[in-house]
Design brief:
CATH class of one domain: Alpha Beta
Shape: globular
Number of strands: 27
CATH topology of one domain: Rossmann fold
Mean pLDDT: 91
Strand content: 25-35%
Strand order of the largest sheet: 2-1-11-10-12-13-14-15-16
Low-confidence stretches: none
Length: 516
């Protein structure tokens, strides 16, 4: 029987086994695994000195930084619950999350202190605001002053396997953001699954430019730390900065959304700039054939891994062995999938009544996993709707093929019902993206008096390319049933993206799917 351990146990193990290996690199600074444990212990003991106890909540609002990593580690080692807050949200949305989570202490970047101070009078429970930068505002404590008030070798209390580790709020693409309860035991399991899938060791370094407040970057970072590896932190995605960091910081693992990967490749003029990369992890969307071909040419020795999941549960991955370009229909079909379920993860395809559907029939993806979330914070109704009989009902529509590969069809709420027919937006998007003049596409449903809903494609043209709405429609009609072809085609300069790299369809619907 495997031991019941915590994320804090990983921190202790790394501080001994990989003491001098960097845990984090950022802005020319280095923090070793031994030093990370010391700093995390100091933060936890300082918070205990203010009256906090195990399983009380703290929050962090900021971009990727070593300080952010130290606060996460303080929770992992002590059993304090860390709530992460999306810095890209509007102030009322930030206030909503803080009002829901009710942390006693809020850590934030200096640039967000004015926002926090403006919100603070309307928030109950926040007793201490800690700035990662200068503390120039009344009632705000400087982070280094807090660390100095703690002790690096005396942990006031320790995490337990049953403890809640984090509250991570969903992106809110289908409604109000909900706080996913993720436990110590489950997150340690998640870290080891990610480590195995990436095949990462203590010599590996992953570049994290996707935000650490999100489960994606957090899981990848934990996966590297599971075996004493290093996370190289960038505060935001900059393709030129990524290209510099690979040789300068010894990056061997990249974690990017496909749009970010393409942007990096567009600037990769030096054929040896990416020579050190041996693993490319992408998520949030399927990769196009053009992007994959370019990536394989730029990084011929790298293996690719496609991850599928959500904040509630990380589900499956397409491993490097199945990433082959220029092959036949079988290889192309594999690349369009999100791979096989991870170890200790069960996946079912079910109808609206929860009955299993056979391979080839699309239905809702239901998942049961040792690394699954425990429910939604302060939302028993949503928890009961999502977790039924131990299965997480994802809200995604999927299908298994004859190789047992899982294919995403759509979000249930993204399915367009046009003239009584179900149109899956993802299928139409893939058809549109096959047009050489289209570089990005999002498909939504818009009101239509005759059909109820009509298919609308919002597209970004490739640089220097020309394409008309009729071109796009005819291109899709040659590949799909005529009723699936977009009745509206809208040309834009770029698509709105969430921090995860996913297209913000909620914003597109607000912009284009209102009353016509």
């Amino acid at each position: 029987m495997s031991p019941d351990l915590t994320l804090g146990d990983t921190l202790h193990e790394n501080a001994v086994r990989y003491a001098e290996v960097p845990a984090y690199l950022a802005d020319g600074r280095v923090l070793t695994h031994a030093r990370l444990r010391e700093r995390a212990t100091a933060v936890a003991s300082a918070l205990a000195g203010t009256g906090l106890r195990r399983q009380e909540r703290i929050a962090v609002l900021g971009r990727n930084s070593i300080e952010f990593g130290e606060v996460l580690a303080a929770g992992q080692i002590s059993g304090l619950v860390v709530t992460t807050v999306n810095f890209r949200l509007a102030p009322p949305e930030i206030a909503g999350i803080l009002a829901d989570a009710r942390p006693r202490v809020l850590f934030c970047d200096a640039e967000y202190v004015p926002v926090v101070q403006a919100l603070r009078p309307g928030l109950d429970g926040i007793e201490l605001v800690v700035s990662f930068g200068p503390a120039d505002s009344p009632g705000v404590t400087a982070y280094e002053d807090l660390v100095a008030s703690g002790t690096p070798d005396a942990l006031p209390f320790a995490a337990r396997p049953d403890d809640v580790a984090c509250l991570i709020y969903t992106s809110g693409t289908t409604g109000r953001a909900k706080g996913c309860i993720l436990g110590q035991r489950e997150m340690r399991r998640l870290a080891h699954v990610m480590n195995v899938e990436m095949r990462a060791g203590c010599a590996d370094r992953v570049l994290l430019s996707m935000p650490m407040f999100h489960i994606g970057a957090m899981a990848i970072g934990l996966g590297l730390h599971a075996r004493g590896g290093t996370a190289v932190l960038h505060r935001q995605f900059d393709p030129a900065a990524v290209l510099r960091a690979v040789p300068e910081d010894g990056v061997s693992v990249l974690h990017l959304a496909p749009t970010m990967l393409q942007a990096m490749l567009d600037q990769a003029t030096d054929p040896v700039a990416l020579a050190g990369v041996r693993t490319v992890v992408y998520s949030a969307a399927p990769i196009t054939g053009r992007t994959l071909e370019a990536a394989l040419a730029a990084m011929p020795d790298a293996g690719f891994l496609n991850l599928y999941g959500q904040t509630e549960v990380i589900t499956s991955g397409l491993p490097r062995e199945l990433h082959r370009s220029g092959g036949g229909e079988r290889d192309r079909r594999r690349l369009a999938s999100v791979g096989h379920p991870f170890p200790d993860t069960e996946v079912r395809i079910v109808d609206d009544e929860g009955r299993d559907l056979p391979p080839g029939r699309p239905g809702e993806i239901a998942v049961r996993s040792a690394a699954m979330f425990r429910g939604y914070w302060n939302d028993h109704v949503a928890t009961a709707t999502t977790i039924r009989d131990g299965w997480c009902h994802t809200g995604d529509v999927g299908v298994f093929d004859d190789e047992g590969l899982l294919h995403l069809v759509d979000r249930k709420k993204d399915v367009i019902i046009s003239g009584g027919e179900n149109v899956y937006s993802r299928e139409v998007e893939e058809a549109v993206l096959a047009h050489p003049a289209v570089t990005a596409c999002a498909v939504i449903g818009v009101p239509d008096e005759r059909w109820g809903e009509a298919v609308c494609a919002v597209i970004v043209r490739a640089p220097g390319a020309e394409v008309s709405a009729d071109d796009v429609r005819e291109h899709v009609r040659a590949r799909l049933a005529r009723y699936k072809a977009p009745r509206q085609v809208i040309l834009v300069d770029d698509l709105p993206l969430l921090a995860t790299g996913k297209v913000d369809k909620k914003r597109l619907r607000a912009r284009y799917a209102g009353p016509q």
